[in-house]
Amino acid sequence: MGDNRLIKLVNFIMSSLSPSHRIALEQRIQPLLQAQRQEPVVLHHDNTAYVVKFARREAGRLWREHLSSFIIWLLFQQRVSPYQLRAGSIAHEAQRLRQLRAAGITVPALYLETPDYIVMEHCGESVEYRLRRTPYDRDLLQAIVQSLIQLHKQQQWHGGAQVRNLTIKNQRLYRIDFEENTGNAMPLALAQAYDVLLCFNSLATHIQQNQTLGVELLQRYLQQTQQPEVRHLLIKVDRYLQRLQRLLPLLGKKLQHSKDIRQTRYFAAILHQSLQADASS
Ligand SMILES: Nc1ncnc2c1ncn2[C@@H]1O[C@H](COP(=O)(O)OP(=O)(O)O)[C@@H](O)[C@H]1O
Ligand SMILES: [Mg+2]
């Protein structure tokens, strides 16, 4: 049996719910549906924790998609339709979970799929919370970057690669939240470069803008992935961000010190230094 078919078979067996669990969970989900719950909910049954994620259409999503499309155009000089970037339905998320798991990426097992919700494996604590408690946990930071490297080496993309969409269970990192459609809306290298941007930008606050550490982590990504197209796109972003930095004094003091600008400046600095170090190594 081929590797892929074996993974699919193992997935299928591991992802099957017993009928009694299924009925018990469905009964507990019904009132949540009636109450129109939006946020994912954790349910415990028979000593097992499950996460229920509901179908939803957040107000303001289209605005966010237009903003993402604009940012991609600014940074990468590539046009991507905001309509293609539209966050997918819950069926889209279920499909992504199945595909990624079959590709060997650590994502939650999918137990139930309906038009209104999905039920998946509870994959532990949010990495965002863990980092807030221990911001300089080098092992954790390296594991985060290693997980991005592995994802990209498998020719995959996340879409929502910020650390808030990672969880940790039994010292293993899981990727969650696959509503975004970036990888279907743009070439793979661009979706991966966008993942790099989101991941490292989201690390900024946690490592207190420690540049040496950021450079070390980003360099690790560049050296281990060796993807010329992603690198080329990141060089474009670097050029753009360096030009943008020169305009910063034109902004008011308050804006200059806003969280978003500080994060972007941090990313600009570590990207520039990592690319330089990578080119000379
Ligand atoms: N499978 C899971 N295991 C553990 N926690 C989860 C899981 N799925 C979601 N969560 C928790 O719920 C939060 C929101 O879920 P997410 O899928 O990221 O939805 P949103 O689109 O609201 O960001 C996550 O940040 C995480 O803390
Ligand atoms: Mg999320």
TrEMBL record:
UniProt keyword terms in alphabetical order: ATP-binding, Kinase, Nucleotide-binding, Serine/threonine-protein kinase, Transferase
Positions of the RIO-type domain: 79-182
Keyword 4Fe-4S: no
SUPFAM superfamilies: Protein kinase-like (PK-like) (SSF56112)
Source taxon at top rank: Bacteria
InterPro entries per the UniProt record, alphabetical: Kinase-like_dom_sf (IPR011009), RIO_dom (IPR018934)
Record-listed E.C. numbers: 2.7.11.1
EC top class, as a word: transferase
Catalytic activity of the protein: L-threonyl-[protein] + ATP = O-phospho-L-threonyl-[protein] + ADP + H(+); L-seryl-[protein] + ATP = O-phospho-L-seryl-[protein] + ADP + H(+)
Pfam families: RIO1
Name of the protein in question: non-specific serine/threonine protein kinase
Taxonomy of the source species: Bacteria, Pseudomonadati, Pseudomonadota, Betaproteobacteria, Burkholderiales
